[in-house]
Amino acid sequence: MPTFEIGERDFLLDGRPFQVISGALHYFRVHPDQWADRIRSARLLGLNTIETYVAWNFHAPEPDEFDLTGRRDLGRFLDLVAAEGLHAIVRPGPYICAEWDGGGLPAWLFPSALRQAQDGAGSGRRADDSAGGAAGVRRHDPAFLDAIGTYYARLLPLVAKRQVTTGGPVLMVQVENEYGAYPGVPDDERAAYLRELVRLTREQGIDVPLFTSDQADDEHLSRGGLPELHKTANFGSRSTERLAVLRRHQPTGPLMCMEFWDGWFDSWGQVHHVTTPDQAAGDLDDLLAAGASVNLYMVHGGTNLGLTNGANDKGTYLPITTSYDYDAPLSEHGAPTAKFHALRAVIAKHAPVPDEPPAEPGPAPEVDVVLDHRAALADVVPLLSGPVTASDAAPTLDDLRQWSGFALYSARVEADDEVLVVGEVRDRAIVALDGDPVGVLDRSAHLYSLPLPRRAGTLTLLVEDRGRVNYGPRIGEPKGLVGAVRTARRELTGWRAAPLRVEDAPALLAGALRPADGSPEAAAVAEAHGGDAVAAPVAGPSFHRGTFDTVAGADHFLRLDGWTRGLAWVNGELLGRYSSQGPTATLYVPGPLVRDTNELMLLELHGAAVPRARFVAAPDLGPTEE
Ligand code: GLA
């Protein structure tokens, strides 16, 4: 059987030196019908290996569920990598960062939630709420390690049987992720935790080399690994200098940049990040010329489909955009970019590269859609709502066992309450009084209070988790309303709260949306648009649906100019969030979702003047720094 080892100087494949030239491609960010295409394009770039993280929460939405089918069929993904003649690297976490919801850690994992599950459903607030973070996470904690043992036992057998040592593609497996960057853990506990992960990994039959990866500085590299595990480093520039730093911590064996950042991720409200092809090419050239191995992060970024995006919070909460294009060599829709050609030319200097560039896709079909069916969210709450919890203090989303998305809270206010002040809102709440708009609480904007109309009534808060933090000490923090909710004269009590299954809206609301045409507003707007058949303006939160005919199987780019914020589905598949904040102005619609006749559905949280949407010829990821 083949072997893969870490030699004195090099990686050794079947005993011969092997330079790993790899690219990151997350199966969970790409439609499964497109996996083969993206893997093939990666090979045409000159790569010999594909690396993927495994997002634990993608497979385990609840503690007793584990799904390895369809989009989650990692075994099939690895088989496609092998079929293309490529090797594989697997990074199963348990924590992955990756700008993914919670860094891949399931929200049900965090001790507070575990405790609550053990106690049965409960109410009341936890003492550590406002501090953020969660004790036990990424530590040598029995409950955490026990859950990892179960996760590995469900996941790793499929990796074990695809190891190079059994004739499969998998060359090596990572333990943890940039653990040196995780604060607050004493050194001896760090080592004990990592050793336990190694033991749990080996227990599942993983016999290929294990490694760690850390940011390329002394502090991270010295804290993130174990003497007995091979160390790799993550960086996107100054290759020669960074390899020298890595060498100080990994005195023998091959040097590898496990994440060569050839682009960067985007956050809502910021510019679209790009790096020049020349810069990436120059740094890659230095790496390969030094004989180092590399994993391009990313070769193809893909999309945070559904509600899967993570967030950063270093003082200001910044959720990641739906697009994870990453300015990678293969664009979000899999097209080779200028960077692809620049990196391919560099790789060709050091290794054989197939003499066949990937196909350049043409423009996408352009289609206008009128969203002529609608329903106010308030009118369909019973169809979307999970069980209602009544409690004195406002629960968190985690208390409601709502691990992502939305929940609806309500409480009674009196005329002299005057102002609403929340300890924290994670991450946004649209506030109404007896159905009339009051305003918005917003964590990113540090907006934690609102004046109230001077009348008594039922206050509702539509609370949105915009993505769980994926990096740093806030991993594992609870979502929803956190801390006391007060008015001018008291703490608000008598709460009712329920999770909303908004992500399943197309199925749950199939018959509930009504034609908007014929209303007086519709007639007025139609007139303003020269008699066009246009439905009434959009006042959210509300659902909107329209149908459109187009080219089945073709990629599309949905542009929602004039809309504000919300979610978009095509044929019942949640594409992700849209936001007028930008930078991204288009949502990618993978071709496999598209039929001859299609349904577009939106949840608009705020408003739009005209209920029209457009599919445009090309993506628009927004303004860059320049
Ligand atoms: C680090 C992490 C990755 C990713 C990148 C930034 O290197 O290890 O998961 O978050 O940063 O894209």
Automatic annotation (TrEMBL):
Outline the extent of the Beta-galactosidase galactose-binding domain: 541-596
Domain of life, source organism: Bacteria
> Which class of enzymes does this protein belong to?
hydrolase
Q: Which reaction does it catalyse?
A: Hydrolysis of terminal non-reducing beta-D-galactose residues in beta-D-galactosides
Which UniProt keywords are present, listed alphabetically?
A: Glycosidase, Hydrolase
Q: Where is the Glycoside hydrolase 35 catalytic domain?
A: 11-112, 137-349
Could you identify this protein by its name? Beta-galactosidase
Source organism (scientific name):
Isoptericola hypogeus
